[in-house]
Request: fold
Amino acid sequence: MKTEIKDRLPLRPGADLSESDPASSAAVADLLDAKIIIGGSRAADTAFTKTLLQVSGFSQIDTAADGDGVLQMLRQGIHDDRCDVDLLIVDDDLPGFDAEATRLMMDQFDEWRLIPIIRLCRESHWDHAQVLTDLGHGVTSLLYHPMTAESLPPAIMTALAVKRERDVSFQHQLQLEDELANLKVMEARLQFSVSHDDLTGLANRRRLEQSLDLSLTQVRNFMSTSALFYIDLDSFKVLNDAEGHEAGDNLLVQVANTLRRFFRVNDTLVRIGSDEFAVLVDNTDETTVHKQAEGLKNLFDGYSFEHHGHHYHLSASVGVKMITQGEITTVGEILSHANQACYTAKKRGRNRVHFYNPEDREMHTLRHSVQWAPRIRAALKEGHFLLEFQPIFALESAEVTHYECLLRMRGEGGVLYYPKEFIPVAEAMGLIHQIDFWVVDHALDLLRAMPEHIAFAINLSGNVFLDEKLYPLVQNKLKQTGIDPERVVFEITETSAISNFDLTKRMVTSLRSLGCRFALDDFGAGFNSYSYLKHFPVDILKIDGGFITDLDSDPVDQLLVKSMIDIAHSLGKKTVAEFVERESTMELLRGYGVDFVQGYLVGKPQPDISPGKIKN
Reply:
């Protein structure tokens, strides 16, 4: 019987007769293992049908005497969202079973929707209307009593084979739907990541630029007003460095949630940088913006953050740019102006709000720096720096024994720029050490050609004494030129010496061990002058010119200068008085016992001090 059934198995849908192979033994065994429910009110007929199927090789057969029994078996067959029932064989007069109602009910559940129904009819004649009705109600096929081995098993195998194909097709459909759903989720995540920050979930700069573009359209066409808040967390780097990036990330998430609660849902919140946030507020007015800005400043004033038992109090600098119809600009300019306002707020002490103003002094300084940075780089590359020399007069020998090296920069058209114009920019841009090293290299080259009684006083920036490269540079240059190290006097300002006292003192001590001398410049300008003088290893004190300019007419300056000279001498140090421009001043200083004088009375800075032009 099994061989007969195998030979009568239907082809898979879409198979070509010329290419088909007989069904495999595994496929036949799988169909014979299907679970079948027989529903009939006549026990004898039901038993005969079951026996006929068992003889044909089917092993999982259950019977039910009414429609409720069939439904109960269908319910019990559901496991893990699948039903193990493969086929219903139902008599047409089964009590409580209506083919149309049952099929409609089964079609509502994926577990039952694909289960075929074979209806067993009593009438042996063809009823065309009944066939159309049954098939229209989901009955797979109609069979008539009495059942025979030639008609029933092949029909059942065909129905089961079709169900297996439908099961496979349905599983493929579910897989495709899952893949499509996953693709949609991935697409949504990708679209979200394109316009949002991964850490905080806030919008990113790209999204902000798009929103600003829409805001500008509204301002132009509807004369509305918008505002862009630019928020920079103060001292965030301290927390990030002290506690690590995990703590920093936690703080940023906390701040993002705080901003969400503070602003409206339709305001555009953005994380625009590592510790910088921006908020675009549309359809507002200047009064409301001022209130919001002040509220934002108060919100972050003393902002507390705890990590592993450590408490940190932070604040924020807030820059605000109003976007009004009277000042139509571009998206890039709006972002730049808001950033500039925030920069100004930080420069003016942090923890404050500042509205953008094109006249801000801080921005003028910043623009000045931006303009000067490429000039400085070009001057270093193309050799546009030069030295001028101002004589220092020794009162005891009545001759010029030193020259102070003064840095200049040559610009276009031969214009000379003085240090106050480019040194602050060089310090801010990290170029100052290159300039310092250039000065040392060129000054010592020039000193080699000078008479042996001439010394150079070389001005260097304070931070260069923290650079470990300075010592080997000076050491190698002295060996290369053969200059007596005592002819080299490095000048360091009092404020620079104080700011990094221990490290600066170490470098000064190292250079003095080579034989170089040191002068403490602008002595007396600070409040700790005498305290640091006791411990700082210098050979010469240069009295700040502010005490010398009006020395002959100011009794207080006279007392102070005299005390500086006396203390310096008591410590075994020489003294230099700067800004000496009158003979009367010179005579007073001579009476106080000053060692050297420098100023226009002695000589102005000059670019050429060839040995033949040395002033005595």
User: Anything to note?
Assistant: The first helix runs from residue 2 to 7.
